[in-house]
Amino acid sequence: MLKRFVLILVLTLGSVHGAELSTMDSIRSKLLTSAVSLYFSTRGYGKVDNVTVDTTKKTLRFVLMPEGEKQPLNVSIGSYMTLTIDKEEYLILQKVQTNRVWLNRIFADHMEEGIKVPLGIVSKGAGSLFLSL
After folding, report:
1. Which pLDDT score is estimated for 9?
2. CA nearest neighbour of 54 among 74, 75, 26
3. What secondary structure does DSSP assign to 22-66, as a single string?
4. What is the longest distance spanned by two Cα atoms in the chain?
5. 116 by DSSP, 3-state: which?
6. Which site from 13, 70, 85, 116 is most exposed, i.e. has the minimal number of CB atoms within 10 Å?
7. How far apart are CA 65 and CA 6, in angstroms?
């Protein structure tokens, strides 16, 4: 039912040339912001603020106020993609860079596959559809 509604919404929005990109970018940005914020806060990593999404380049940036720290962490995601594993949708965050050299080294050494953020909670099954359009 929800996927049918999403498809109708997308087809309707697709007929409006000027507003199509800005509307879809807005939806994608809200979805990405919600997914990333929920992922980092529920795991106790910290609070996410100032999410900036470039859906054309598939990049995003945000500020993370790490739990228990006084200095914010600037995070830049060089690419993202969606992936479905066993009927579960995920946002894969890749090419992670921060304003902390030691943390960048950890990501480079141990996070080749990226950070797997579940989309199911936020999107209720429509996340990858919105992100792939």
Report:
1. 43
2. 26
3. HHHHHHHHHHHHHHHHHHHHHTTSEEEEEEEEETTTTEEEEEEEE
4. 48
5. strand
6. 70
7. 34
